[in-house]
Specification:
Layout lengths: L9 E5 L5 H15 L21 H4 L4 E8 L2 E10 L8 E8 L8 H12 L3 E5 L5 H15 L3 E5 L6 E6 L5
Parallel strand pairs: 4-5
Antiparallel strand pairs: 1-2, 2-3, 3-4, 5-7, 6-7
Length: 172
């Protein structure tokens, strides 16, 4: 049974390069969760392959933003945000978003996503894998509430992945 999380204990902030290992380590749990929806295998060392181009989040800080989500000053999740290459599509793309199972359904993920959308003002794109129905339900609910139902959803015709597009309300 999960209990509501006290927002005064929640935190979110950019991860400095000296702490990138925290997200690298948590990425193993994120990829493990994804084995339910995509076909990932462990290597002969019992690890998932490194996340492609993760280092760009520390070497290209003008366009890549690594955020650590904390609860009581302990790592609880992360968000990877990229500035979009095509500004006609959106300003920001929520590349990856992860909250540990311990903190799911407590409000931490909703709180953290609102913090991101408020911090990086502009037009957003959030995409879910077509087979990840829980993520689709979460993001539709969060974005609908955050935008007061002012968002558009499009489905990629090749992969079938849904994406929500919206504007941070404060950016209006």
């Amino acid at each position: 049974m999960t209990h509501p999380v006290n927002t005064s204990f929640m935190g979110i902030g950019l991860v400095p390069a000296r702490q990138k290992h925290v997200i690298q380590n948590m990425m193993q749990f994120y990829l493990y969760d994804f084995t339910q929806f995509l076909d990932f295998d462990l290597n002969d060392q019992g690890l998932f392959a490194p996340y492609p181009d993760l280092d760009q989040f520390w070497t290209n800080r003008e366009t890549h933003y690594p955020f650590l989500i904390t609860y009581q000053n302990k790592p609880a999740g992360f968000a990877l945000v990229e500035r979009m290459d095509d500004p006609a599509e959106a300003d920001y793309y929520l590349t990856e978003f992860f909250v540990m199972k311990k903190y799911r359904r407590t409000g931490l993920g909703t709180w953290a996503s609102y913090q991101l959308f408020d911090r990086l003002q502009g037009r957003w794109k959030v995409t879910e894998v077509s087979t990840n129905l829980p993520a689709q339900a979460f993001w539709r609910k969060v974005i609908k509430a955050y935008t007061k139902d002012r968002f558009e959803e499009r489905v990629d015709p090749a992969r079938g992945n849904p994406s929500q597009y919206f504007l941070s309300p404060s950016a209006n």
